[in-house]
Amino acid sequence: MTTAPLAFCEAPSTLRSRRLSATIGARVTGVDLSQPLPPADREALWSLLLSHKVLVFPGQHLDADTQVAFARQFGDLTPSHPVMAAVDDDHPEVWEIDSYGAIRNDVWHTDVTFVERPPLGSVLRAVRVPEFGGDTSWASLEAAYDSLSAPIRTAIDGLTAVHDGSRTFAQSLAERGAAYADWDGRAFSAFVPVEHPVVRVHPETGRRSLFVNPEFTVSIAGLSAYESRGLLDALFAHISKPEHVVRHSWTAGDVVVWDNRCTAHYANLDYGDFHRVMQRVTWVGDVPVGPRPAATPSRHPRRP
Ligand SMILES: O=C(O)CCC(=O)C(=O)O
Ligand SMILES: [Fe+2]
To answer: Is 301 inside any structural domain?
Structure first.
C-alpha cells in the first residue's frame, strides 16, 4: 500500500483592507500580527504599505516580544533610537514613548531624519491610551509633493536640506552621558548636521516625496537665510494640509505601521494629565536619494 504525501495547503487569507482617504492610510483586519505571517500575507501587507503608506491594525494586543517578531519579518530593526534608551535590556529595539517622560512628539516630523540613513519605517503600538485625545496624524509627503505647482516642483527637485536633531534631543544626549547609543554601527555621541535631498525618490515605488519636516530640517543648502526660512515655512505649511493627512484615534492594542520614506507624523498633545504610553520599533533605512544631483555643493559632506 502506498501512502500519498501529505499536502500542506495554506488556508485562504482572511486579510482585508479598507482605504481611509484618497491619499494616505488603510485599515487592515483579518490578520493576527502576533503570529508568523504566511508569505502571501506578508507580501500583501508590504504591497499595501507601499500603496497607502500608513496601515492601521485595530485590536492586535502585541507585547514587546511579538512586536519585534512581527517587524523582523519585513527587515532588520534599528536600535531603539540614536539618543533615547530602549524600554529595557531585553528589548534593545523598542523605544517607549511615555507621556510622563520628557519627549513630546507634537511637531510634524519624519522619524530620525538627522542621520545619514533615517529609518525605513516604524511600527507603533498603543500600550496605554488617555481617556480622551492623544490621536496621531500622518501626512503623505508624496501627496504634498504632487499637489505643489509645477514651477515649485521643478525649483525644489535639485535642492538639498540640512537636518539636525540637536534642537529636540541635545538635552537627552547630554543626560545620557558617555553611555551613547549605537546607531549605524557606531556610538552616537554628537549631533552632526546631515544633508538630504528636499525631494526624495522612493527606492521601491520610484515616486517623489517632499522630504523636509519642521522638527529636524533647519535650512536649505545654498540659499540665503531669508530664502531658506521662507521656502521651508511654505513647504512645512503645505505638508499638513488636511487633504494630505490621515488621523488615528487610538484604542489600547492598536498597531500602526508607516513608511518613513514618504510620510511625516504628529502626536496630538491634547489629553491633559492622562497617561499615554506607546512603544515603537523602526526598520533600518537607506540613504535618501533625490531626482537629480544636488544643485549646490554640500557644506555638510556625508560622513563615510
Ligand atoms: O506617540 C505617537 O503617537 C507618535 C510618536 C512618534 O512620533 C513616533 O512613534 O515616532
Ligand atoms: Fe515620530
So the answer is: no
Is 280 a known active-site residue? Answer: yes
Q: Are 121 and 255 a contacting pair, CB within 8 Å?
A: no
| Closest atom of ligand 1 relative to the 124 alpha carbon | 9
Please indicate whether residue 265 is annotated as part of the active site: yes
Q: Is 111's C-beta closer than 6 angstroms to any atom of ligand 1?
A: yes
Measured in angstroms, how far is the CA atom of residue 76 from the centroid of ligand 2? 18
- Is residue 82 within 8 Å of residue 115, measured between CB atoms? yes
Judge whether 202 counts as a catalytic residue.
Answer: no
112 within ligand 1 shell (Cβ under 6 A): no
- Locate cell 525644489: which residue? 156
Task: Give exposure, 34-59, as e/b (b: 16+ Cβ within 10 Å).
Answer: eeebeeebeebbbebbeebbbbbbee
Does residue 272 form part of some domain?
Answer: yes
162 lines ligand 1 (CB under 6 A): no
pLDDT in tens, the chain (304 residues): 444 444 445 678 999 999 999 999 999 999 999 999 999 999 999 999 999 999 999 999 899 999 999 999 999 999 999 998 899 999 999 999 999 987 789 999 999 999 999 999 999 999 999 999 999 999 999 999 999 999 999 999 999 999 999 999 999 888 887 777 889 888 899 999 999 999 999 999 999 999 999 999 999 999 999 999 999 999 999 999 999 999 999 999 999 999 999 999 999 999 999 999 999 999 999 999 999 755 444 444 433 3
Q: Would residue 211 count as lying in a domain?
A: yes
> CA 254 to CA 250: how far, in whole Å?
6
In a domain, 278, yes or no: yes
Range(s) of the domain holding residue 37: 16-283
Looking at the structure of the chain, the number of domains it has is 1
Here the CATH number for the domain that contains residue 47 is 3.60.130.10
Which atom of ligand 1 is found nearest the CA of 95? 9
